Amino acid sequence: MPGVVVVFVFVVLLLLLLVLLWARSARTAHDLLVSTPRTLLVTAHPDDECMFFAPTVLELLRRRCSLFMLCLSTGNYRNEAEVRKKELLRSCHVLGVSPSNVTIIDHRELPDNPTISWNVQLVTDLILRHVKEHRIDLMLSFDQWGVSGHANHVAIYQAFRYIYVHKLTPPGCRMLCLHSVTLLRKYSSLLELPLALLQPHVLLCLARCSQYRQALKAMMCHRSQMLWFRWLYLLFSRYMFVNTFWDVSKIELELCGAIPDSR
Length: 263
Hints:
globular, disordered C terminus, N-acetylglucosaminylphosphatidylinositol deacetylase, membrane, GlcNAc_PI_deacetylase-related, transmembrane
């Protein structure tokens, strides 16, 4: 009996801790998004906006932030560029992103290919052009692992790093990167939430049930990509439910060895 009481008290305290962490995280997210109402999401391929960033996209739109999307390729890996461009625009419509706020880059030096490293200077120039054109306050994209390790994802982080190191952002503009996690955590679905709350982060976005359904509906627009394993991804990937971001400055400190790897 005493053991049951101890377990009960432990569970209650753990739940209380998670509630407090969630409240703090929600307050931090509110403060950040209120102070940075114009956001640029930089992705590598059509479907990235659903597979990796849906909780964030939907949270930004729920808070009435102005969201601009820059997709740096047409997804032409299997010569389906025109199909995938249309799929992306349909997906954005389902998510609530205005088509006029979506830019799709079709450039021969930016092919959809996991074995080809993109021209970082070109990526940097494209990003900075959009930051200036849309008066961006907040830039979002992948971190140095690119979630899946895809070379095109990593190239965007390298451009973010170049912008950070050379101080090329406008005053007050922040750069946040989506936190890559280990394979086990990546496919732990909502079980990942306690770890996400406990781990340091600048921004956490959690999809509500209605938002998760909306993200699924948006992903269904990418019919050319719906192979059997994608269904498993939609069910089990933490990125369909929760996004955590950290600042480029923290990543650079970690890469320099000043902060231990927190993955």
